[in-house]
Specification:
Layout lengths: L5 E10 L2 E11 L4 E6 L5 H8 L7 E6 L2 E3 L4 H6 L2 E4 L11 H6 L5 E2 L2 E2 L1 H14 L15 H14 L4 E5 L7 H16 L3 E6 L2 H7 L2 E6 L2 E7 L5 H9 L17 E11 L6 E11 L3 E5 L6 H9 L6 E6 L2 E2 L5 H7 L1 E4 L3 H5 L6 H5 L10 E2 L2 E2 L1 H14 L17 H14 L4 E5 L7 H16 L3 E6 L2 H7 L2 E6 L2 E6 L6 H8 L3 E2 L7 E2 L1
Parallel strand pairs: 3-10, 3-11, 6-9, 9-10, 15-22, 15-23, 18-21, 21-22
Antiparallel strand pairs: 1-2, 1-4, 4-5, 7-8, 11-12, 13-14, 13-16, 16-17, 19-20, 23-24, 25-26
Length: about 525
Amino acid sequence: MENYIIEMLHITKEFPGIIANDDITLQLRKGEIHALLGENGAGKSTLMSVLFGLYQAEKGEIKKNGEVVKINNPNDANSLGIGMVHQHFKLVEIFTVLENIILGVEPNKMGFLQKKEARDKVISLSKKYGLQVDPDAYIEKISVGMQQRVEILKMLYRDNDILIFDEPTAVLTPQEIDELMDIMRGFAKEGKSILFITHKLNEIMSVADRCTVLRKGKCIGTVDIKNTTKEELSKMMVGRDISFTVDKKEIATGDVVLSVHNVTVPSKTSKKNAVKNVSFEVKAGEIVCLAGIEGNGQTELVAALTGLDKLSKGEITLAGKDITKASIRNRSKTGMSHIPEDRHKYGLVLDYSLEDNIVLQRYWQTEFQKNGFIKRPAVRSYADKLIEQYDVRSGQGALSTTRSMSGGNQQKAIIARELDKKHELLVAVQPTRGLDVGAIEFIHKQLIGNRDQGKGVLLISLELDEVMNVSDRILVMYEGEIVGELDPKTTTVQELGLYMSGAKRNVGKESGHAE
């Protein structure tokens, strides 16, 4: 009989209106990287939250090294050597890196905090595992990739040997993903056991030993990675064949929908400008992608375009109207739809119902209100239509609290709302971040459908496959400037990488020269 370090046997977990985990068995070997694959809302995060003590299962048992254990809360999990990096990080933004790492296990003598000893341990761990972080930096001032390193160091500081990663690459750049994969391989070589939730089949194929697939709360099976293919895994995950190529017809552009002229946006973290004198156009019927490594001004440029932040110089024109100083609502009325980078901060009111979030941009229209009172039946009917059309899954349908939904289904709700309202331009920032292959295929079809209906699409993406397959034109941003304009049909991923890293520029058309 095989020895497993962790066994989750016949786990069932229910929420109002939904069985999130239905009689699931998962077995983890010592020193292996075990992937957990499934569509958005398949029950992956719920299952790992049961193992980490955030939820209690109605049925089933958990064993560690063959002994039944009871995990009532995360402290119990930590004492058993189980740590978890959550999809949405659990960090205190106004605390330093060091304070976040030791929070809850603060070393003290006679009631006095012993920070030096903790700092030495953190510095030693970060050197050993190649997780360079500044222990004195404040969380709110560091990049998302650095925040993830802090979460990993929290587990290592507590000497955890069973590490759960929930969608760890959803918010990382391609370079950071490669680094994380190397770190995970290093952990496994040391004998640590890893449970790795992801939607990304390439990552599973490159780093995992085995993979357990969940679909709609049930376990479909566990496979050895060396004996399977991406196509087989995707079929197990969604129950049908998935196309990994993006079909689109030839481009037919119309009038200019968005004109950005000499836009400069100040940085919030330094005295420099985050965006420097940027100009470009998006025409009706084309998908223009802003590509670049995270932190090169894309976020600040989008904030200025959508009205979340002010620009210090330049003009923005949408559908022939000057919107440089327009409010967010007026930009929306003029014809702008926006799928934001941070769905929790800018996309949803998490404690509102799904139906209220779906009409957030339109509740004042006569279709949904009369004399200042919301027409509930109209809102419900409209929400139900979009929920079905975009396959948004939740326990209680339109009445579900948005906070209770999986990240991918929250994303689908935003996309449904933004695509269905009247618009001339869609600004889509990381639209497929955290989505499974079936949902990505669906979203790509929606973006291309928008373009084919004569809308302008400005796509901001860190996924190089998405940049190459979906866009008609690529603008590369580096250090706040547009350094290249590329045609996805004639360029390569390697060339795109050179522009993204600043090694190459062609500020004028086709005048590329290495710097």
